[in-house]
Amino acid sequence: MTHAPKTHVAFFSGDITRSGGTENVSIMIANALAGQDADADMRYSFISLFEEGSEPFFAIDPRIARHTVYPTVTHGIQHYFDTVKRLRKLVVDHHVDVLIDIDGILDMYSLPLRRGTGVKVISWEHFNYLQNPGVPYRKLTRRWAARKADAIVTLTEADKQLYETNVHPKCPVIAIPNPMQVVTPEPRYDAASCTIISSGRLTYQKGFDMLVDVAAKVLPRHPDWRWLILGEGEDRPMLEEKIASAGLGERLILEGRVDNMADYYRTAAMFVMTSRFEGLPMVLLEAKAYRLPIVSFDCMTGPAEIVTDGVNGDLTPEGDIEATAKAVNRLIDDADRRERYSAHALDDADRFGMDEILARWHDLLSRLVTEGR
C-alpha cells in the first residue's frame, strides 16, 4: 500500500540560531506542532537565510530538519535574485507545501515562489503594522503580502484590525497570540528578592537606553537592590557608556546571553520592560508565567493584552521615564503590592495556552493544504 507523502511545513527565518523572541516563539510553536503531529500527515522544518551560530540558542526538536539558503553569513539586497533562486531550489527539492515567514520582511523572497512551485505562503507578523524596524521597505512587503500571501497571522486582534483597515488584504488575517509556557515545578514568588530583571536584544526597539534613565531614578534610592539586563546586541557599547556615566556600573548589570533564564525569573522581585514597540512580547509572557509583577511601557500592541494595569502589573505611557520610575519605586517600597500582583499574574492566562494556539495553527494549515489540492 502506497502512503501519500506528508505535508511539509517550513518556517522561514533570517537565522534560527539567534536568541531573540521571534526565534523563541517560532521554535516553541514548531516543536509543539512536531510533537502533536509525530504520527500524523505533517512534517516540519526550518529554513534560514544563514545560521551564524553552530547550534540554535533555543532547543529544536530533533524531528525538525534545518536547512540554510546560504552556507555562510550573507547580507544585502544586492543578493536578492540569488536568494530567491536558492530558496526556490530548497522549496522544490524538499517538497515544501507551506512556507511560514517568521519575519514579514522575508515575504520579499517567498512570495515570488508561489508562481511555479504552488507553495502556500503565510506572512507571520511579529511586530505590528505601524512599525518598520530596521528596514524601510518592510511597509512595501506588508502591502505585497496583503495582495499575494495566502494568509497573514498577527499576534493581536488590534494588529489584525490595523491590517484590515490599512491595506484591505485579499487573504485571511488571523490573530494567533504567542504561547505562554507552563512552568514546572510551579514557581513560588520570592517576596524577599531585591533583584529587578529585564531581558531582550540590546537594540533600539527594546529601549534599554530609556531603561538606564529609569534605573538612574530608582537604584540610588534603594542601595540594597540591583538590576540585571539579560541579552546581547549591537547597543551594548552605548549602554555600557551610559550606565557608567550614570554611576550605575555595579548596580545595573549587562549579563549578556544566559542559558539559565529560569533561574533569573525564579529569583527576581519584578520584571521591567521599556520597549518602544512590540508585537506581543515573549518576555512579558515569560515573566507572567513565573508570576512576576510587571512594570512596562504601554507601547503599541502587546503589553495591554498581557498586563492588567493595577492588578498584576503597572502600565506606564511609552517613553515616560518619571512615571515608570515611580511605578518601580512604589513596588520596591511595597512588598504587599508585589505579592498581590504575583498572586494575580495568571488571572487571564488561558488565552495564551498552547493547546488553544496550536488548534488555531492546525486549522489554518489544514485549510491552506486542502485549498491547494
Automatic annotation (TrEMBL):
Pfam families from the UniProt entry: Glyco_transf_4, Glycos_transf_1
Domain Glycosyltransferase subfamily 4-like N-terminal: 20-179
Keywords, ordered alphabetically: Glycosyltransferase, Transferase
Domain Glycosyl transferase family: from-to ranges: 195-344
Molecular function via GO: glycosyltransferase activity
SUPFAM superfamilies linked: UDP-Glycosyltransferase/glycogen phosphorylase (SSF53756)
InterPro entries linked: Glyco_trans_1 (IPR001296), Glyco_trans_4-like_N (IPR028098)
EC number(s) reported in the record: 2.4.1.292
Top enzyme category: transferase
Domain of life, per lineage: Bacteria
Gene3D superfamilies: Glycogen Phosphorylase B
CDD domains per UniProt: GT4_AmsD-like
Name under which the protein is recorded: Glycosyltransferase family 1
Lineage summary: Bacteria, Bacillati, Actinomycetota, Actinomycetes, Bifidobacteriales
